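Note to self: keep these together.
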Amino acid sequence: MADKNFIVKNGLEVGGQEVVSSSGVVTSAALGGQTLASTDSPTFNNLTLTNDIAVGGDLNLTGDLNITGDVNSLSVTDLDVTDQTITLGAGQVESASGGSGIVVDGSGASILWDETNDEWDFNKDINVTGTISSGAITSTGAIKTDYSDEISMDYTPNLGAYYKGMSGRNQSSSTARGLHIFNYDNDSNEGINFWVGTNSSKVFAARINSSGNVGIGETDPNAQLHIGSSNATGDATNPALQIGGANTYRLGMYTDNETAYIENKNGDDGIAFRVKTAGEAMRIDGGTGNVGIGTTSPASFLTNATALEISGGTGVGSELILTNNSSMSANEVVGSLIFKNTDPSGAPNHFAGLRARAESTFGRMDLEFYAGRSRMEGGTPDMVIIPNGADAQANVGIGTDLPSSKLHISGINTTGGLFVEDSSASAASPPSCCPPSRPFLMSIFFE
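Structure:
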């Protein structure tokens, strides 16, 4: 028989079972390879498909749809689910559930269940315009919110509200500027904490407490910046506070058990101290360790460009003490106080000095006065005060460094002598040895 269509007008029974009713409704059939057009409206009580079926219109199911193969849809914009859940891997054991999820073909985007780590894995960014409430979120990509929203962690125990997180909104003015990290705990003494390390080896790094104090390596900072929690914090190689590179820093601060250190380890010009109006007020030279006050190039251990004033003291008043810590022998210089003019335009440069020298017998000191550089360098004083005997009653020598009486004057011709004047009296002109027009009372000369 040639291929012909069967036209059923009054129903069809196969094997005693009605498969097409008299009204044209298919009640039960095996439609392998058949296609129902969108103009058809068949109703199935039970339908078993062993081959493919293409549905061009709506497919309405009131029971279960059990599919052992794939469900492929073309040109489908929305999937509407009236029920509340979609179950993936239904009936499988828990250990086999890993990898269940949603895959977007062509883009590589996926949402897959990681059974080993008990978490969902999103391999693309998540853009959320609402609120996410969760226990933990782990992401290898970016978690983004609107700049005016916040990522917060809320908890309300019996003690009151705990509220912490971060936001792009200023917490005081509510303007959306900057990044703001906050912790509004009733028990906020632990503030905001920073940790480093690994899951198995966590290391506390820093804390900002409820007073706004910052502690680096310190959990209870009592200053606006508090570094370290032990007496010895940092060293010359790794200072507690460092400005500059690891091998090039110019300012480092650290401590040991008893000493505080301020160090310029790598700079040649030392450490300078500056103030508002005067600029540089003091410098410690990097090469010599000399201290300059009012000068940037101290030539000696302490160089002062202007006046050095010492005030204070109790009982004895102010004191300037020059100390020699070595074991002194007779006639050894203990210390000197020098006055000089370093201006090279002077002819000659002016110079005067005071020197203390160890006394040979009673452990006291001689004082030597010099009115010129060459005399001080040559050790020839213009005047000396030398202790005399065990009671240290001093002799004064002028022109001699070994006075044998209370006042011992030594000179040659008219250059030596004792001249006593009265500045208020009128007298004849003094001898040729003496300044002109200076009234005098008595002159003693040694010839």
